Amino acid sequence: MKTYSFNQILELVEEMSDDEKFTLLDLVGHRLREKRRDEIALNIARSNEEYTQGQVFRGTLAEVMAELRR
Question: Checking CA distances to 30, which of 36, 47, 57, 65 falls within 20 to 30 Å?
Fold first, then answer.
């Protein structure tokens, strides 16, 4: 697999047509949003598991602050 430096990638992008650049931006943006959605879904699953196992502290603000001071 060939690797490119960041500057080489920028040079390759500069050689693209404007339409290709917009398409590239759309694709990269889409993939970043998908990745972030996957990260959020994983965090939700972990949080649900911790809640199910009783590892989540619940209480009033004062109780939470007291717990953090311990």
Answer: 47
Residues 6+ apart with CB under 8 A from 56: 47, 50
What residue type is 5 in one-letter code? S
Contact (CB, 8 A) for 26 and 34 = no
Q: Tokens 């993939």 correspond to what residue?
A: 31
- Give CA–CA dist 70/67, Å, rounded: 5
Task: Give residue-wise pLDDT tens across range 10-26.
Answer: 999 999 999 999 999 99
Q: How confident is the model at residue 67 (pLDDT cuts 50, 70, 90)?
A: confident
